[in-house]
Amino acid sequence: MNICKAVGLRISKLLSEKDMTLYRLEQKSGILHGTMMCIMNERNKNITLKTVMQLARGFEMTLLEFLDDKIFTDEKLEID
Predict the structure, then answer these.
(1) Does residue 79 form part of some domain?
(2) Domain span holding position 51
(3) Assuming Cys at both sites, which of 27, 35, 65, 73 could form a disulfide with 61, CB separation 3.0 to 4.6 Å?
């Protein structure tokens, strides 16, 4: 699994936990709909730290809280 897929899965998990819609996350994070769709549909090959920080803010959490999930520590996570 690559980082972009992991971020998409983390977004899905948090949306469910926080009972939030993707549209609401886009509004709160300032991420454009097209960009969000690329992340969620795994069309992005790379994701920037800025985008991850925007996502964390959209969820009203710190960057560390967003990244605090076993999906990001999986040894099979591809970083290239």
Answers:
(1) no
(2) 3-72
(3) 65
Beta bridge partners of 59: none
The structure's pTM equals 0.92
Residue 76's CB is within 10 A of a number of other CB atoms, namely 5
pLDDT at 42: 87
**Position 77 in a domain:** no
Exposure string of 33-67, with b = 16+ CB inside 10 Å and e = fewer, is eebbebbbeeebeebeeebbebbbbbbeeeeeebb
24 band by pLDDT with thresholds 50, 70 and 90: very high
The CA–CA distances, whole Å, from 62 to 38, 54, 57, 67 equal 23, 10, 7, 9
